Every structure is written in C-alpha cells, then in structure tokens.
Hints:
Blueprint: E1 10-11, H1 17-26, H2 31-43, H3 57-66, E2 67-68, E3 73-79, E4 85-90, E5 96-104, E6 107-111, E7 115-117, H4 126-129, E8 132-135, H5 138-152, E9 158-161, H6 171-182, E10 194-198, H7 202-211, E11 215-219, H8 225-231, H9 240-251, E12 259-265, H10 273-282, E13 288-294, H11 308-320, E14 324-327, H12 352-355
Helix pairs in contact: 1-2, 5-6, 7-9, 10-11
Bound molecules: S-adenosyl-L-homocysteine.
S-adenosyl-L-homocysteine binds next to strand 10 and strand 12.
Amino acid sequence: MAMGDSPAKINLLDLDIKGIEALAVELGGKPFHGRNLLKWIHKHGVTDFEQMSDLSKKLREQLQDKTEILLPEIVFEQPSLDGTTKWVLELPDGQRIETVHIPDGDRSTICVSSQVGCALDCSFCSTAQQGFNRNLSTGEIIGQVWQATRELGRPPSNVVMMGMGEPLANYDAVVTAMDLMMEDLAYMISKSRVTLSTSGVVPALKRLSEDSDVSLAVSLHAPDNDLRDQLVPINKKYPLEQLIPACKDYVAGDRRRKVTWEYVMLDGVNDSISHAKALIRLLEGVPSKVNLIPFNPFPGTDYKTSPAERVEAFRERLMRAGIITITRKTRGDDIDAACGQLVGKVRDRSRRQLRRGQSQPLQVTQP
Length: 367
Ligand code: SAH
C-alpha cells in the first residue's frame, strides 16, 4: 500500500454471521442490517451496495467507504464431455485455483479448494507436485461457492472440500466458510451435504468435532502404517493408531453418521485381496463407508490405475464384510478435473523442488 492510502478495506466475504452483525453495528447500524447484508451478498448475489434497498443510505455509504466484496474471478471455464465443468479462478494476488462442478441427476456437487497448492506431498497426487503457496482466506473459499451459485443459477446441493489443499491445515478459514455454506441466510446446504476431506491432521480433526458437524471423509489409501507412510506422508506424524480413533470419535453419538474412507486404487501397490482384508480389520467397529477411487494418472507419475476386475474384487470383499463400498466414477478426467488432477497455477514457496534435489530453479508460473 502506498503512503497516504486509506487502510485496506474489509472484504465482506471473509465475515460470518457474527462478524457481519458486529460490522453493521460498528458502522452505525443494527445487527439485523448485517444479516440483511449477508443475504444480499450470498443469497441474492448482489455486490452493488446501491441495490441493497433495505439498508439506509448512510449505511450504504459507510459500506462503500470501508468495505468491499472481493471475489475470486473465473478466468477460464472448461466443460468436460461428461458434464463436469472445471473453473479456473484467479485470486486478487494473481494466484490461480480450481473449482469443479459435478452434476449427477438432481445433485450438483462442487469441489472446493482450500489452499493454493498443497504442502502434504502425497506421492500419487498432482496437486502435491505443484508445491504449496498459501492458505485461502474465508472469502476466497466461500467466493468459489458464490461463483458456482451464480453460474448454476442456484446453490449447489452438495459441497466437498476436496479440491486443492488440505482443509484442516487452513482450519479457521475453512470452518468459517463451511458455516456460511450451511447458514440459512446464505447457501442453506445441510450439514450432511457439506463434506470435509482430510488426509488426517489428527489434532485439527479433534478440534473440528467440537466446532462443526459437517460430514467427514478421510483419505486413507492404505491399511497399514508402512504403506501409508509412503503414500500419505503425514501418516508419519499422525499414524493410524491415532487417526482411526479420532475418526471414530468424530461420528460417535449419531447412529446415522459414517466416516467415508477414500481409497485410491493403485495397480500393484494397495489393491490386493490381502490389502482388502487388512482394511476390514482396520475399520472394525468404525461406522464406515468406503469410496474406491480409480487412480487418475497425470504426467510424470509412475503409478498406474488398477484394472477394473481388481477394483471389483476388492469392492466385493469389503461388501461381504458388511462395509458399504462404492467405486467412484471418474469424472472430468478429460479436462484434468478429476481427483488429484487439480493444479491451478501455483508459485511454490515450500522449496519442495529444491528439496527433491532437482537442478532447475523453482518454477515461477506467473507471467
Ligand atoms: N487434502 C485433502 C483434500 C483433497 S481430496 C485430502 O487429502 O483428503 C482429494 C482426494 O483425491 C483425496 O482423497 C486424494 O487422496 C485423492 N487423490 C489425489 N490424487 C489422486 C489421483 N491422482 N487419483 C485419484 N485420486 C486422487
């Protein structure tokens, strides 16, 4: 900011209901003015204060002066043959993230990013290869839902926090954004239709069970620590003997709730019947649903997709043990919008490429 500039404006998209009520009061209005403001922005998609007819002229002037509604902009829309759409969104600092829309009959799911890149380094995920730049703000997370709602003409029926990034590594912004997704005055999506997916940041997961009751999906991918250490390296920090009980606790107390375990099927790596048996033992006593995800290849990876018969045999083995198991359809793979293919345009700040010992300098992808 140049000298003499007024202080940065508050981005109204960063505020939850309490925050926006407090702001309205601070600007000389009443809490309900804040609620009206929230409704204008999120329910009606109005960003021009002049159009907010139930706010006084004075309050509108104050808002104009001190606040802004700063949205991530859709710079690229890529439709897939199967109806999936990938939106590339540009953030105010020029970074790019991806949001995916997956229609399925009456359902429309959007897959939302929580970080620019990801710091976790899972070996089979292409987001990981891009490195990590920064957390998204609440406004940048809910801004993806705002944009999707305008594109679709109505709010999505489901949101999955399964885009770029580890949502539990950006805890506060993600929890506030999810609250807005479920808020009646905003998107009104029920808690069973907002799903957070995590690779297993155990302390944050424990905190989440106090603060939120969204649905939980966990990227498991292996039935034992040795293999999971290789595939999902955060397992070295929070191994299965910590992760599984934390997940069990998360769904405890509600008979309808289950943990959704995501399991990417990697040819010859984690897809044998003995892996299935170990998985059954691991999940014993945990209300569970398993999603088998066919591996989506990306340039530079050595992993291969398991043959369909092996996926089916694995699924059958779990089903026989009484575990509901679904083989997820791969959607949007022709436009690189499938799981683990979201890459955005990330300026890596984790120096991962240097750590990996590559001789090239860090790749700067911004023009
Ligand atoms: N970091 C969070 C959110 C990402 S969710 C998490 O790990 O849960 C994206 C899901 O797609 C995760 O289950 C992830 O492990 C999976 N995935 C990543 N790369 C993939 C690939 N190449 N093919 C299929 N699934 C992949």
